[in-house]
Amino acid sequence: MRGGAPAAVDLAVLILYLAGVTLWGAWLGRGQRGGSDYFLGRRSLPWGAVMLSIVATETSTLTFLSIPGVAYLGGLGFLQLTFGYLLGRITVAATLLPAYARGELVTAYHLLEARFGLGTRRFTSAIFMLTRTLADSVRLFATAIPLALVTGWPYPISIAVIGLLTVVYTYFGGIKAVIWVDATQMGLYLIGAVAAALALQVLVPGGWAQVASTAGTAGKLAVFDLSLDFGNAYTLWAGLLGGAFLSMGSHGTDQLIVQRLLTCRNLAASRKALVGSGFAVIVQFALFLLLGLGLWAFYGGRGFERPDEIFALFIVEEIAPGLRGLLVAGIFAAAMSTLSSSINSLASASAYDFWAPARGLERDDARTLRIGRLFTLLWSALLIGGALIFIPLSRGTAAVEVALGIASLVYGGLLGAFALALFVPAAGARQAVVGIASGIACVTAIWLFARSHVAWPWYVFIGTIVTFTVGWLAANLRAKGTSSPQQDG
Question: Which CATH fold topology does 8-398 show?
Fold first, then answer.
């Protein structure tokens, strides 16, 4: 039935999915003996599964819900960013991945410790934790939208249900469960997207041919914008340059993604997983942007309070029972893949970057497993709490832009620090921290006072340049002022 209470078959499909994936994920974690099992899967996972996990983790809920809303309000311009995403991944595969492969690293920030010391490792890891908590709280809220629409539950209950079910298999299954469940969930939500496209073919008079004609007349089919307007987030230059730096920051310095790359068997496998995910993301974003155009044609361009509600309302009101339950399960698949990945990566950074060094237990694998599970529970609670806070702040903005904007504030600082580590031998810990703080402060000032003039895709590029430049200048001044170039701090 359309527009009414959810059909019993929809709830049955949803409950079966939630129960099945939770139990399967927990079962995958059997036989774990230590932290290396729990957080790195013994470095033995196949690159194909890791690639699918990367795609599911970075674009899941936001792709399913927000990207159609972005196309609904605008057009296909967001696709320009994905070309930059691919360039960024290729750069990371060529530069940072070999550095990771040369050492027995357990987090992305372990590399910075080897170069600048434990303090810098902790500083950058703390930045990751704060940013990941804020951005993924937004993602969790976005996923509560369809559950609230299907069940009639208020957002707080919907958020709690998603979070509590996800933490069960993440707690017991560790990174192995996260990656294999992610790979399966990606398949499910893509099936859901294709089903929605077929439904639009039937529901829009004239089908997709009419959608293309109407959207073309309205100028919504244009992909490339060659203007030099820095306030426009969707230009070719913002896409290629801003998208590349954003991808280098997220896939080269963010523990959420780097942790997956460290689970591969060797450098070649990590490179396949990373670059392959870039091509997959282009296809996936194109699919969900096209869905947004179909929804625009179906609804005649009418306004909505939240852009993220458009696709969710279509699923609830227009899709037949049974298939509707599958689509909602697909949204849950998208949500749980991102949330489980965030929880596990936050727990690993807490255990390896803070707890183990502070206790002198870096090599105590069994105790790292136990404390890692405790951190899993802690970060689950914080992410759920953050999603609850976002509820009153969400009107009028697509969650994808909020989440990417938050991440972009700090990725430049982190990426600049890695560049200093690799290319400025004279830089020490103090210079790295000063550079990071300068880069983040600069971008935050732009976001607070000039966001209408400088769009968020430029933030990582600007932050990286400022961080690297300040760190490089400080390192040169230090080298001139002392005859002893040893590491300080």
Answer: Sodium/glucose cotransporter (1.20.1730)
